[in-house]
Specification:
Blueprint: H1 2-9, H2 21-29, H3 32-46, H4 50-82, E1 87-91, E2 97-101, E3 110-114, E4 123-128, E5 130-134, H5 136-139, E6 145-147, E7 166-167, E8 172-177, E9 185-192, H6 198-207, H7 215-242, H8 247-261, H9 266-283, E10 286-288, H10 292-297, E11 302-305, E12 317-325, E13 328-329, H11 343-350, E14 355-357, E15 360-362, H12 365-374, E16 377-379, H13 386-391, E17 399-402, E18 419-428, E19 433-439, E20 447-452, H14 454-459, H15 470-479, E21 482-491, H16 506-509, E22 514-522, H17 527-538, E23 542-546, H18 551-560, E24 569-576, E25 585-590, E26 596-597, H19 601-607, E27 613-618, H20 619-628, H21 633-639, E28 640-644, H22 648-660, E29 665-669, H23 675-680, E30 683-687, E31 698-700, H24 707-745, H25 752-771, H26 791-816, H27 837-857, H28 872-896
Parallel strand pairs: 11-23, 11-29, 23-28, 24-27, 27-28, 29-30, 30-31
Antiparallel strand pairs: 1-2, 1-3, 3-9, 4-7, 4-9, 5-6, 5-8, 10-31, 12-13, 12-22, 14-15, 16-17, 17-18, 18-19, 19-20, 20-21, 21-22, 24-25, 25-26
GO molecular function, one term: ATP hydrolysis activity
Protein name: ATPase cation transporting 13A2
Domain P-type ATPase A: 86-205
Length: 899
């Protein structure tokens, strides 16, 4: 059996080959730019520009060598990261444990995970026991995650929908417990190997990144092709044909014009702005794994934010507890530890996935606060766990919650007793709930507890146990910005299967529950959030919120951070799907008012001038809207600000729907449920302690959204710099065009050293001085353009070209009109006529044109600081350039014989 599976799936290996230098060299030389450079060097050599050709050849060799070194270095790093080979213990058909190399793993193998954990070499579904896993490599989450056993059922397994039960390749399993015969290990079944694992997909995305569909890069290529292949070549052929040069000279000179269009410094020039921006961002604690995306951030028009941990504080404080039942709600209890012993207190103490690691409690901040507020302590089995198992009726105990000492419990109340957790059903974003199965000492009084969103928990509780005023209470607490969780419970049959890993199915546990009450927690807005949202608003950038929390809580947070102003109304969108009893409906309701149909007075009010409003919609309504009312979807998206109860997949879909409306979307989040949206967005920002999250392009070490305006400013600065540099390189080519074509007309050309001086010391230095300027301190309402083939850009280049041509022509005419002018020899052509006065006049003026144009096209306001902010570097370098140009002209005057 193993033989056939191994033949089908192959070795469990993520093989990233490290290519030899010769192969890399061959691939690098085939790069279009280097192919063009080889063509240019051959052409220059034929035309006797030996010095220039040798210099460019040396520079190309250095550039290729650096590129080969960096490429191989990255390849080695990726190879070492991807290659994970270790020894693991498995069980196959015989049921006997054997130690094998991880390369031999195939789907279907039963993997034994030791108590001390391991670095997982495959994807696996957890069957027995629990595992504490560090998944920061995949999600950027800094907190370990508790994985629980997969539930039995006939549904098809999916690692995405069963993330809480799936162990992903490349993640560090910190500890395992509760599985196997001795209880000191966990058992999992291999589901995917090699490139089909989560780590394999990650490596594939690094090897084959998603292409950047950005207009600037596309227009740059088109502009260069038109300039080189059409304008330059045709015009030079006409001029040279009229000069009656030979066919060989005609071909060489025409092709030489093409080499002028793509100067050697062009690739470095176009990346200068992004490299400077990336370094500045790193100093601010923002890391970027794809520098070209910095330019894309400059065109962002919509910023999408997660709520919890992004706009609001991650850590929550318990605000109060309110028990409920058929007779209504009790008085608010400020602290759970003040509750009388009973199901509510036990549910708060037990319904969680908090675990112990070396004596320290670990888990989600909300659950840690909840457990801490009860005063109960967590105990986990040690060794084989038989001591605790015996204490609780020989059930397989996962954890024990023990109440505080009697003198610390509420006065006059009966003493609470310890409770053992024997089964967990972890929280799921899709299900919006979690539950546990518990037993008391000696295995008596088994209970199931459930905790989750109030709407979901109530739907699973018997109607007669839910208080009559549940909806109004929930509305009241949510409107105050509190995070509300509901709890329920029910007694279970005490005759549970002893020593069984799975006692009951989740579907059986989570039905016919009894409503217990509400837990309210404070969800404070981070102090930086309001300032950032206001900055984006003043810059005419739209902000929206996508969260899994209650819609009223989300609206309250949106008002607190300034997404919704106090004078603006909120309209709730409620869409229902098609059912056997009713057709799909779409309803709108003003805040604090009853729902109304689409043709109601609300629509009339929306159309009224001066009626400022925002739409708010929940995930279920969003799904129904997309499916049954697609014609209304763009209209809702254009005015919606709050998207609540959104599942991870719905967040991803939301980003894509905004992109269909031609928004450039940035997504900012901090959790694993944001990974899909972070990857789908044009640019994603992860707020995580990890230095770089693989789900997003940008990762900030500052755990608030203050990095978003910084990234937009840097993106705009980089984009403006790229525009300026490209315009400069285009005008630089046009300056050289004009110089060469004017000199062609006079039967001469530029010399070898003159080309070298312009292309390398002068222009390259100017480009890097242009790119050094930082972003403006303020975010301006207007956004920089992203199209090079626009009327303003083309008109600017055309006007500059006219001035350049007239300036050089004027210098030539002034020179030829002087008494000391000595005409050149008209019987020869090209370099044979050097040195001459025509060459000197055009060369001298064009050198200053390069510097002046660099100053002119280096646009500052409103997205970039002016050129003089570059500091001493710009001043010193420009003085050096002017002096070198003057000295070179002086030497040339002596050579010609004019001094």
């Amino acid at each position: 059996m193993y033989y056939f599976r191994s033949r089908i799936y192959g070795p469990n290996l993520i093989d990233v080959p490290v290519k030899p230098y010769m192969q890399l060299l061959f691939e690098e030389v085939l790069n279009p730019f280097y192919v063009f450079q080889v063509f240019s060097i051959i052409l220059w050599s034929i035309d006797d520009y030996y010095v220039y050709a040798i210099c460019i050849f040396i520079l190309s060799i250095i550039s290729i060598s650096i590129s080969l070194y960096e490429t191989r270095k990255q390849s080695v790093i990726l190879h070492n990261m991807a290659r994970l080979v270790t020894n693991v213990t498995i069980r196959r058909n015989s049921g006997v444990e054997e130690c094998v190399n991880s390369l031999e793993l195939v789907p279907g193998d039963c993997l034994i995970i030791p108590q001390e954990g391991l670095l997982l070499p495959c994807d696996a579904a957890l069957l027995a026991g629990e595992c504490l896993v560090n998944e920061s490599m995949l999600t950027g989450e800094s907190l370990p995650v508790l994985k629980t056993p997969l539930l039995a059922g006939e549904r098809k397994f999916s690692s995405e929908s069963e993330r809480r039960h799936t162990l992903f390749c490349g993640t560090q399993l910190i500890q395992a417990k509760g599985g196997g015969l001795r209880g000191d290990c966990a058992i999992a079944v291999v589901t995917s190997t090699g490139f089909f694992t989560a780590k394999g997909n990650l490596v594939s995305s690094i090897l084959y990144p998603q292409p950047i569909n950005f207009r600037f890069y596309r227009d740059a290529a088109i502009f260069l092709i038109i300039l080189a292949a059409v304008i330059g070549t045709i015009y030079s052929i006409v001029v040279l044909f009229r000069a009656k040069v030979t066919v060989a000279q005609l071909v060489i000179r025409s092709l030489d014009i093409v080499t002028i269009v793509v100067p050697p410094a062009l690739p470095a020039a176009l990346t200068a702005g992004t490299i400077y921006a990336q370094n500045r961002l790193k100093r601010h604690g923002v890391f970027c794994i794809s520098p070209p995306r910095i330019n894309v951030f400059g065109k962002v028009s919509l910023c999408c934010f997660d709520k919890t941990g992004t706009l609001t504080e991650e850590g929550l404080d318990v605000w109060g507890v309110m028990e409920g039942g058929p007779t209504g709600f009790s008085e608010l209890v400020p602290e759970p530890r003040l509750l009388l012993p009973g199901p509510m207190l036990s549910g708060l103490a037990c319904c969680h996935t908090v675990t112990l690691l070396r004596g320290q409690t670990l888990g989600e901040p909300l659950e840690l606060k909840m457990v801490e507020s009860t005063g109960w302590t967590l105990q986990e089995p040690e060794g084989d766990g038989k001591v605790l198992d015996a204490e609780f009726g020989h059930h397989k105990v996962l954890a024990v919650m023990r109440p505080p000492a009697p003198h610390l419990q509420a006065q006059g109340a009966s003493i609470s007793e310890a409770v053992a957790i024997v089964q967990r059903f972890p929280f799921s974003s899709a299900l919006q709930r979690m539950s546990v199965v518990t037993v008391a000492c000696e295995g008596r009084s088994a209970f199931a507890f459930i905790k989750g969103s109030p709407e979901m928990v109530v739907s699973l509780c018997r109607a007669e146990t839910v208080p009559e005023h549940f909806s109004s209470k929930l509305h009241s607490f949510s409107s105050e910005g509190l995070r509300v969780l509901a709890l329920g419970y029910k007694p279970l049959d005490s005759k549970l299967h002893v020593n069984a890993t799975v006692f009951v199915h989740r579907e059986e546990v989570e039905k016919d529950m009894q409503f217990l009450g509400l837990l309210m927690m404070k969800n404070l807005v981070k102090p930086e959030s309001a300032n950032v949202i206001n900055t984006l608003r003043l810059a005419h950038l739209r902000s929206v919120m996508a969260t899994g929390d209650n819609i009223l809580t989300a609206v309250n947070v949106a008002k607190s951070c300034g997404m919704i102003l106090s004078k603006e109304k909120v309209i709730f969108v409620n869409a229902t799907p098609h059912t056997d009893e009713s057709r799909p409906t779409l309803m709108f309701s003003l805040e604090d008012e009853e729902a109304s149909g689409t043709q109601s007075s609300i629509i009339t009010q929306v159309g009224r001038s001066g009626f400022d409003y925002h739409l708010a919609i929940e995930g279920k309504s969003f799904a129904s809207l997309c499916e049954h009312f697609p014609e209304y979807l763009p209209k809702v998206l254009m005015r919606a600000t709050v998207f609540a109860r959104m599942l991870p997949d719905q967040k991803t879909q939301l980003v894509k729907e905004f992109q269909k409306l031609n928004y450039r979307v940035s997504m900012c989040g901090d959790g694993a449920n944001d990974c899909g949206a972070l990857q789908a967005a044009d640019v994603g920002v992860s707020l995580s302690e990890a230095e770089a999250s693989v789900a997003s392009t940008f990762t900030s070490k500052t755990e608030n959204i203050s990095c978003v305006p910084l990234l937009i400013r840097e993106g705009r600065c980089s984009l403006v710099t790229s525009f300026s540099v490209f315009r400069y390189m285009a005008l630089y080519s046009l300056i050289q065009f004009c110089s060469v074509l004017i000199l062609y007309t006079m039967h001469t050309t530029l010399g070898d050293w003159q080309f070298l001086f312009f292309d390398l010391p002068l222009v390259t230095l100017l480009v890097f001085v242009m790119g050094k300027g930082g972003p403006s301190n303020e975010l301006h309402p207007c956004r920089p353009p992203a199209s090079l083939l626009s009327l303003p850009v083309l008109a600017s280049i055309f006007l500059h070209t006219c001035m350049i041509f007239l300036g050089q022509l004027g210098a030539l005419l002034i020179t030829t009109s002087q008494d000391w002018y000595i005409p050149l020899n008209s019987t020869v052509f090209g370099k044979e006529n050097l040195p001459n006065m025509e060459n000197f006049s055009v060369f001298g003026l064009s050198g200053f044109q390069y510097i002046i144009i660099a100053v002119v096209v280096t646009k500052g306001y409103p997205h970039k600081k002016p050129l003089y902010y570059n500091g001493k570097l710009a001043k010193i370098e420009y003085m050096k350039l002017f002096n070198s140009l003057l000295w070179s002209n002086s030497d040339y005057i002596k050579t010609v014989g004019l001094a």
